[in-house]
Amino acid sequence: MNAWLHRVARNKIIDKYRKKTSVLLDDLTYEDEEGVVGIKDILITGDSNPETEYLRQLFWEQLKEALDELPENQRNVFIWNELEERTFQEISGTTGENIKTLISRKGYAVKHLRKKLENLYEDFMNY
User: pTM value?
Assistant: First the structure.
């Protein structure tokens, strides 16, 4: 599941980047010796040096760890909706769950992931 999750998340970020839609990652930056660096650039760029590779790997590990902490029903709804771009209607049709229930589960997942990834962002800022 780790490789699959990494591939789906990476593709989702790249798709949003190519579409030039607003992505919250655009607002995340940190400053190093060479100036301001965008977190999104670290996560999707093909350029690799030991520092960016470490940060990229740390992000994917933290994301997987945070997703693994979620109850299965919350994790699945988040992955299906956000990473696989399935609508709540499609998910409801597949699972038989009420759409409002699915939205609620995703909301809990998002709150948990924000909290977990916020700590990672703070680590980036202090890096």
Answer: 0.59
